[in-house]
Amino acid sequence: MKPRLSVITLAVDDLERAVAFYRDGLGWPTQGIVGSAAQHSAVAFFALQPGIRLALFPRTSLAVEAGVAEPPSGTSGCLLSHNVARREQVAEVMAEAAVAGARILRPPRDTAWGGHAGYFADLDGHPWEVAWNPKWPLADD
Length: 141
Fold this sequence. Notes:
Blueprint: E1 7-12, H1 15-25, E2 30-34, E3 43-47, E4 53-58, H2 59-66, E5 80-84, H3 87-99, E6 103-110, E7 116-121, E8 127-132
Parallel strand pairs: 1-4, 5-8
Antiparallel strand pairs: 2-3, 3-4, 6-7, 7-8
């Protein structure tokens, strides 16, 4: 198996609310919800970098589709990271997330590894890191 990540799927409690958070609150482009809630196929996709997508999938539908127990609300066993090109962009992105309704977990601060980072939770409790790493230069968007 080649090491490749194509889609990150997050289980959400309310698909329309989650889409509004990422689309309207964070400004991420999407074609909206596709599929049918009745058939457990309703999902929304957001294009990230080329070849990578974020999918939002109702918690119950994810359990049905994957054949697993429904994950509890407000839990996540992973951390999603959004790196930025400049130190000051960490605070800008954190403020944007807060206005969109995110819960700030840790305000931006200098890190032990030489960068600058803050943490927020989206409306379903998924934790996000917003980080500037001087060792990973990025072009300004």
